[in-house]
Give the backbone structure.
Amino acid sequence: MIELKSEQGPDSAASDPTTIRRLYGRRQGHALRQGQAALFADLLPQIAIPGAGTITAESLFGDDRPLWLEIGFGKGEHMANQANAHPDVGLIGAEPFVDGVVGALMAVRDGGLRNVRIHHGDALDVLERLPDASLARAFLLHPDPWPKARHAKRRFMNPGPLDHIARVLKPGGEFRFGTDHPVYCRWALMQMQRRSEFGWIGETADDFLSRPVDWPQTRYEAKARRLGHEVWYFRWRRV
């Protein structure tokens, strides 16, 4: 998953969304098998986000379809399910972990999905290149919680990244966040309560304790359930 660190000081990443940064966590796990390496070499270039320029539906898909972005898609099961259920939507996924990208590529290949584009790297690179009010939906599902207080600045749910989310979401667009980690849950709510650009979609406890029917389960959520963890689902609308 994608987390950030400023190289200009301990607090600047949280206040400046354009600060120099680097990714935390592994970019590659075990060595890829031959078939996986071939898929990475052959399919990824066909559906990769271009390396430069403004990112629009027209540049990616040749039309003006709605765009959704998943920030850190794991192995892509949620993104692939959403793409399959919404063929007229363009799904953009950003993930730095090689094994995760390969998993998503397998899902794209096996599902014959034509409405997915992948960025192998930092989601902020994508967010910075999206025009204002260009996304209809954004997802941040089970990110690394960085539970120690001294690592809080590494969490994606911080002012700088959220400034980008607020900028690129269309009015009425939706930001979805899911976690099973109580520290990150409290932190995320604290951050979002400070934002005037978002309105919480929810009226009862069931609205954040029960997964919506159009919210496919991720492997991280399934693992959390097996471990007996409570999982929380939050939805905010860009106002």
